[in-house]
Design brief:
It is a single chain. The protein has 457 residues and is mainly β. Helices cover 10% and strands 44% of the residues. The chain has four domains: 2-191, Jelly Rolls; 201-314, Glucose Permease (Domain IIA) (Distorted Sandwich); 331-396, SH3 Domains (SH3 type barrels); 402-454, SH3 type barrels. It has helices at residues 2-16, 53-63, 70-84, 314-317; strands spanning 17-22, 26-31, 87-88, 93-99, 107-113, 117-126, 133-140, 146-151, 159-162, 167-175, 181-191, 201-204, 209-210, 215-216, 220-223, 229-231, 236-244, 248-255, 261-270, 277-278, 283-287, 299-306, 309-311, 337-340, 344-348, 357-362, 366-373, 376-380, 386-390, 394-396, 402-405, 410-413, 422-426, 431-438, 441-445, 450-454. Strand 28 and strand 29 form a beta hairpin. The model is unreliable at 1-48 (pLDDT under 50).
Amino acid sequence: MLAQACHSSLAMLMHACRVCLYPQGQIFVLLVGVSLQSCNVSGPAGLFGKRSPHEKYGQNLIDAGLRESALGKAWFGQAEASLLKPLSVTIPYKESGYFSAEQPRAAAVRFEAKRGQRISISLDKKPATNFCIYVDLWEAKTSGNKKLLAYADTNAAPFKHDIDDNGIYILRLQPELLGSGEYTLTISSGPSLAFPVQKGKIGSFWGADRDGGVRRHEGVDIFAAKRTPALAAADGFVSRVGDNKLGGKVVFIRPEGKNYNLYYAHLDEQLVTDGQKVSAGDTIGLVGNTGNAINTAPHLHFGIYTGGGAIDPLDFINPAIKSPPAITASLTSIGKSVRTGSGIVHMREGPSATAASLRTLSLNSLLQVEAASSGWYKVLLPDGVSGFVSSTTVKPVSLPVKQLKISNEQYVLDKPESIAARKGVVSPGESIRILGEYNGYYYVSGSRHSGWLPKNL
């Protein structure tokens, strides 16, 4: 039934809407009572050929014959371009933005994540219904390829993903065609495992000297009172209970679905047996100082072992979770045009004064605000390049830079370039308002037309 509804909506779209050009090359859609919906699916990406909601929606467009339409080309083009040139952010990250039905858009951000972290992604949208945004998490491979890892369902329910490799990850947002609405995206990170000691405190970290520098510490030491419960950090099975010279009384646990073992050492007592199934939070032993820790304060040596040896467990269990910076940039400018209000403004790759500069913008450069993050705006230039500018460097275009009276007939263009399409004509004697500029062109508003005129009028 849902699939039939998807195709029915697409068929209606083909007959009920027409496409025309909007100022700055935007696409404007006149829709008569059509709501474009996609099938609601969820689950891990790529299992048994499952398609993500974004992929299913794209296939529905193809099946409906819209792939080569102007509207379809714009939607697919944005999906691909956003993954090729995502903006750089640091997690935790938060942005509030707006997608307009007038212009198919996709937004993507890239960030670093470490093995052992659990990435949490939430999206609040308004309106909550009849406005669908697809949310996909990708891994950027060193080969340049990208792998789809996880996604939200079409209701944009929050989801989490455990990071298996240090690297770069990309989150893409893209609404359905003809959908307008607000959203707030939050990306945060935390540990993928539960903390293994009740009220314990980490006192020695990975890589610290041991035995006078002969070896390095292959784990973290979590200090607590003797016989404090040591807890299973994940659901799984006890792979071994035993004793050894360094670790004393030890327990190994194999978490479900993972390719590593958890190592608990220096226990005063073991409370599980080989092969036993455990759940996160179960007491598997009691903290002590057995093995080579006999002369130290009671603590749990916690390690993680893979097929390639020990790895640093800190990111797997670090309980410290940071909140993203509050959004201080005014939300009233989102979805609107602004212009730079100071002499030189750097448009940057990320919302930080230390991020790489993508463009140097001159006074009165015209920008479209797509989203806000902390004290920054994510903006779109008239040529389609996006980046971040400080919210303090722009001003609204409600008041013109200046007004001019045209002495010779001028063609109003839909883009700031000589090969752009003509939208209309400004007649001699007509007054126009200059709202901004870019690339040697003025963006003007007149009694009949808004668009671009060359500066050398």
